[in-house]
């Protein structure tokens, strides 16, 4: 059997019509006033309403489109894809020099994370000393109810995205789901109010973390910046000295992204 790469390079450029039709529908949604009527999408695409409806049913099932009454808009999957594209738009490169400097200033490891799909991904690390290194393996799943970084990013996402993940994680931890869900969202509300999240030994005994958001000009959280360190040297109290410096860093870098920071 030929390998996949060879097959892709030598085969004729034949695609899948259904995917191209779905792409046409998404492009129409970009142009239409949303939420759009079926008739509006039909006019914009030239696709007959009966065929269009079948495609929309499948696109709703996979999350690309959502239906609100008799109108259509982008779904959760489309929202997540848009978030990834926005976050990857050269954000880290704009702030990496400052993050490297900040890592040296506090003497701890600093990571930059984004929400991708159903969880977080660390996209860069900055270390103040080669003798002290904390790295998380690629693809590792951090708890949306336990990790400082995951809690921080989840706190700023729509509940419809995060609640299935919260419920699943609570169930895996054999916790009373119905009782604990609202406690999780109460913590998320406090994270938004304070602008910072922490965890004490959530991933590994003694490994503490503090995480703050970096906002873009439109108010969306583009990345989370997380400081990691081992107790007792690294103190991750919300009102501690490192937390105060991280909150200041959040304001500084958010302002750099064009976000109007409120002065207290």
What brief labels describe this structure?
single chain, about 260 residues, alpha+beta, Beta-Lactamase, three-stranded antiparallel sheet, 10 helices, about 20% strand, elongated
How would you describe the overall organization of this protein?
The protein is of the alpha+beta class and 264 residues long. It has two domains: 4-74, Orthogonal Bundle (Arc Repressor Mutant, subunit A), CATH 1.10.10.10; 83-256, Beta-Lactamase. The protein is 48% helix and 19% strand. The protein is built from ten helices and eight strands. The chain has helices at residues 4-10, 17-31, 38-45, 49-61, 76-87, 91-106, 148-155, 159-172, 177-194, 241-256, and strands at 36-37, 65-68, 71-74, 109-116, 119-126, 197-200, 207-215, 221-230. It has a five-stranded antiparallel beta sheet with strand order 5-4-8-7-6, with helices on both faces. The chain has a three-stranded antiparallel beta sheet with strand order 1-3-2. The longest helix has 18 residues, at 177-194. The radius of gyration is 22 Å and the shape is elongated. The termini are far apart.
